[in-house]
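CORE FACILITY INTAKE
Project code: CF-77B
Contact: R.S. (postdoc)
Sample description: multi-component assembly, two entities in total
Requested service: structural model of the whole complex
Turnaround: standard
Below are the sequence entries exactly as provided by the requester. Do not edit them.
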Amino acid sequence: MKKNLPPRLASWILEQMLDTNVRYAAMGDFEERYYCMARKRGGLRARLFYWSQIFVLMPSFFRHLIFWSLEMIKNYFKVAFRIIKRHKGFSLINIMGLAIGMASCLLIFLYVQDELSFDRYNKNADRILRIGTHIKMQSREMSVASVSAPMAKALVDEFIEVEEAVRFREDASSYLFKAGENSYREERVVFSEPSFFDIFSIPLLKGNPDTALESPYTLVLSQQAAEKFFGPEDPVGKVITVDHSQDYEVTGVFKDIPDNSHFHFDVIASLSSLEESRDPSWFNMNFPTYVLLRKDADQKTLETKLPSLLKKYVAPKIEEETGQSYEEYLSKMNVEQDFFIQPLLDIHLHSGFLYDFESGGDINYIYIFTAIAMFILVVASINFMNLSTARSSGRAKEVGVRKVLGSYRRDLIKQFLTESMMFSLISLILALTIVWMALPVFNRFSEKSLALSGLSHWFMIRSIIGIALFIGLLAGSYPAFFISAFRPVNVLKDRLKAGFKTGPFRSGLVVFQFTASIFLIIGTLVIINQLRFIQNKKLGFDRDQVLILENADLLGNQARVLKNEMLKHPQFVKATVTSYLPVPSGRRYMSLFPEGESDSKKKLPISMWLVDCDYVETLGMKIVEGRDFSKEFATDTEAAIINQRAAQHFGFESPLGKTLRCPTSSRKNLESYTVIGVVEDFHFESLRNKIDPLVLCIGQSNGLISFRVQTKNMAGTIDLLRTTWKKFLPDEPFSYSFMDERFENVYRSEMRIGQIFGIFAGLAIFIGCLGLFGLASFAAERRTKEIGIRKVLGASVPAVVRLLVKEFVILVAIANLIAWPIAYFVMKSWLQDFSYRISFSMAVFMIAGAVTLLVSLTTVGFLALRAALSSPVDSLRYE
Amino acid sequence: MMRKKTRLISRIEEIILLSIWKLQENAYGITILEEVTKATGKTWLTGSIYASLSRLLKRGFVVSYEGDPTPERGGRRKIFYKLTPQGQRSLMEIKRIHSIAWANLPAFDLEEK
């Protein structure tokens, strides 16, 4: 008999499914029938019967379950709404805090999502790779996102992994496009090949993708450009004259390249138009090259095979030219060269190579933003949790009564969780509204075009609601488990009050919140200080009031004429014609070495700029030794001015009169320059870097004309320049910039990070204070009676205020002590990026501490004062 | 005359009450179920009579009491049911209504048996 017990698992399940009222009797019945069945029809049938009861019970079980849980949820909602209505201010604080937290999180999320979506519009995105070159010369390393012209063909020929390859050739400069009457200057112009349309998912709306870029002097336009040039007419077959010299035929129109692409072109011209595209040299690395991997191929195998190209194609050339073996040559010159592969999807966030099409994002900022988003969300959730727990004092009685009336602890937990999830859902709705309103502003300063619709696909909706519910669950869990554990007897007898001081857990949360806020404040201050330091640093030149005329090369030899023309006006004080400025502009590197040291290790390329005689004076640099260039010395065409760093680099003790040599295009000849002056070091690159050696010499370089102006009426001055320009070149669009603007652009991303840090620091403090306000108001309310008695016994108002404020001030002080070292180390490592940086001052920490202390004092003090001023008569009879 | 107006018992309740009365001292889950099955000719689920039983309990038509622990119920006691006077009255009431309702009816059309 013992062996034939009914199946244990089935019994257990049945027991769970049965209503408590009938469980005992019914279980007995099941067992009795089981034995009866076993006797009559065998154990198997009996067991089968026993198991089948589970399924038989299912429908009624679920009907029951759903009915009652719905009923309970209805009740939970009702209670929750009553609570919201009853404690309006409190609920508002709670919901607002969470909503602001969620909104900032959503905004950051949209931003990050957009950054991560770059180039994913390509159907074959995961199979597209960019090939680049890595060069190491002596100690200088260089990564170039381009390779030589024959590389693409070699890749397709040599490696079965490569399905197709496409080359680009881009000039930084712009072209003048003239179609009929319309002429525009286009900057986003690239030369490429027909395989572009096979590799990238940019559809050709008009024209044949296989042939559109085949023959020389053809081009395709973006939809937008086509519209601009030809309006509604069909552009295919039309002719565009480029730079007054070459006619190109329009062979197609491609769909505008999406925003989240690492390149944007308005015009793609056929690469075959360029003689350079047939250059067999393996050293002319001007061609960004992309390959499409075969579906079954692996990037790793291709990577391991790449060096074989060097052996096969580059080595013989070197041997032929130098008579040395490739290895010998490399070790003698101390040069290393190899190719690298970068997946398309990595390009946007891991860029920063020479010859990138556009400067991309930075994966580090993605990490920082994500961290901030988490930060804010955690701070907001903590707030939520804190406030709900604080409020529990007011609800202890409710719990007691519910328990006495037979509520299970489980039900109470469910009730509190439902309530906090409801709060978080309301916050979510509010957060979405905030995001919707804030997006235009956010877009403006993040320079993106984000839309709320970015959140509207199914996966997103699910995860956002999921996260909101999770926060509700998380935030509600502490009060739910904490409050539901109250013993009704204690609660109803009012014994809990004594134990309701701010517990260590809640204090810990407050400390954490303020630590986060203080950290963000210090971060903001350091970033702002560093940026201000950069802007005010003595750069060695004067960047203010310098007006730069762009595209001056169009003037040709007239550049100097225009310059002199402008200098006739009193507003234009000085001017210099050159493409090379100590702000982002042209750059030129030459291998220079001092006379007599032709084969030395110093033979690495250094900056050598072509300027004119007025350069130093116009830009306000200082000559520390020797003299400036002068028109009076005809020999100055072979003279050079070097900076102090260069003097050091070349090892000149007395640089004046020394000769520098540099190889010219015809290999055997050497140009030589005599040093006539030394200019004080000035920052011609970003302050992130140390000042490098620089050599200035007289030469033709017409890219830009920089005018030092002196005027109150800048608009009028610009107009003056424009009218003069139009006199010289009526067809050409006029464009200008200011030197300080160009300078500031270098630090744009830092500036943006500074702003974002500032905004989120503000938000974190705001949320933290909301929490503090809520907590303090409860502390005050809780102690109404105590305060009343104290006052009756003669306590003064300041004494009472001090009593209430003390607790919170201590917490904020602790938070300061924790935040300072963290902020110190984090910000120190951020500053490492800058070669020229501020040192930490105590003031930053003091300010952050003072701000938080002041803000929290005001918040709490206001409430404390109100409590302290209330008449004891009211407070003692409030029950 | 002045009796509290009570809702009439349903058919299944009537059958259950009758079964309990018939079983007298031996009325518990299984036997009641068997009686009901016998009377209606349909298979009833073990759990299904408990809904009615607890309703009858609540309305005071039956009371329950525990028997001795029995080995075939895994050491559980049988829960026996017994009609209360109120339950008996309700049966009488329903019978009275039935007989009134069934009296003096014209013959039914489906006489062929």
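Facility notes:
- Chain A has four domains: 2-65, 125-347, 363-534+748-876, 546-745.
- DSSP finds 26 helices and 25 strands in chain A.
Invoice: internal transfer
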